[in-house]
Amino acid sequence: MDHFLYKDGILHAEDVAIPDIAATIGTPFYVYSTATLERHYRLFEEALAPLPHLVCFAMKANSNQAVIRTLGNLGAGMDVVSVGEYLRAKAAGVPGDRIVFSGVGKTREEMRVALEGGIRQFNVESEPEMRALSEVAVSLGVAAPIAIRVNPDVDAKTHEKIATGKKENKFGIPITRAREVYAEAARLPGLEVVGIDVHIGSQLTELEPYELAYTKVADLARALRADGHDIRRLDLGGGLGIPYTRSNEAPPLPKDYGDLIKRTVGDLGCEIEIEPGRLIVGNAGLLVAQVIYVKNGEDRDFLILDAAMNDLIRPAMYGAHHDIVPLVEPAPDAGHQPYDVVGPVCESGDTFARGRPLPPMAEGDRVAFRSAGAYGAVMASEYNSRPLVPEVLVKGDHFAVIRSRPSFDEMINRDTIPEWL
Ligand code: LLP
């Protein structure tokens, strides 16, 4: 459920008419709904209660500080994968003891910044990383709290580019070697083992892979405790999928996911951490664009928008589907015709949809891509020297620009031409 609905024939974000935002800042732009963000966060909170838990928003999905602040104010923790995300979380007011540091290639410098600034836990992904963290912690005279990410060799049944829990993936250590690696962790100075971490992939539309993975993690927790480790936290990762179409998709609900967690690991007495990104923010955001031209090709019509693959790369990168809806509600008898919806970037990959049935569209009409709040703005680039798209946050009947559109000068002046040229 989200808060993007037609009211009096105009698409609104909560109580704000989206064309009013377009009139103020121009297109394209991302717009997020506070009520949707809050609602989705609370669904996870309710799903995990009464287990002791922390919902750590996976900031990679959307790292705008206003989004982070919104969730942080509700008590959310953050899952970060770079020092940049760590510093953003801190800047948005999230305390270090609510920040979990994940990622397969943390540098010593990143470890240092997090240890000095305060961190809840590092999710360690390899033995070399574990040894490096031990060295950095010793050099600072502190103990680094760690969970070790195990790879349970489970098929997440999702797009190959976002599956992470199979043994051929680069993530974590094989669960079969976990006891050995935990034994080394216990021997190394400067490390404090606090738990186990697992994350098997993103946009999961079935619960079964979680069931398999979490059952393995529960068995491992018992074995590690028997080995003398103080396993008091389980970080169960993120990945719960969202519906990208309004028709027949029905991914599992947070409530059912919570029940599964209780069933598989609930008796261990551990504090549960989860790292959802997409489910919290995906359907809380739209990308709004304007039709530049309608081009009638030989055998198809192209809708050429002012948004492009550099602004929303998911269709080009994963063949992902995003529903596209006009800002002005079509008349019930308007009918539909197929369009190839494309951007102005100079490659054929800059195609959002092929043969997409839409009501007849004209130059200047505006459309919104739904489900664009996660992995939208964060994956944008300036390809073709197109300035990064601004972001807007709506709450009730007001909105604020939470990242402004850079001017062309700002974009261009980041380059420097050497004196000798
Ligand atoms: N935790 C870890 C360790 C992760 O690697 C990820 C996502 C998450 C949590 C959050 O997963 P979520 O709940 O958002 O599914 N760019 C791709 C998605 C990449 C996901 C990477 N890792 C896309 O646009 O579909």
Write the layout of secondary structure elements.
Layout: E1 4-7, E2 10-13, E3 16-17, H1 18-25, E4 29-33, H2 34-48, E5 53-58, H3 65-73, E6 77-80, H4 83-91, E7 99-101, H5 108-117, E8 121-124, H6 127-140, E9 144-151, E10 173-174, H7 178-187, E11 191-197, H8 208-226, E12 233-235, H9 254-265, E13 271-274, H10 278-281, E14 285-296, E15 301-305, H11 314-318, E16 324-326, E17 337-342, E18 351-358, E19 366-369, E20 391-395, E21 398-403, H12 408-412
Helix pairs in contact: 2-9, 5-6, 8-9
Ligand LLP is lined by residues 58, 60-61, 79, 102, 162, 199, 202-203, 237-240, 275-279, 314, 318, 374-375.
Main traits of this protein?
TIM Barrel; alpha/beta; 421 residues; 2 domains; 9-stranded mixed beta sheet; 12 helices; 29% helix; 8-stranded parallel barrel; binds ligand LLP; Lyase, Ornithine Decarboxylase, Chain A, domain 1
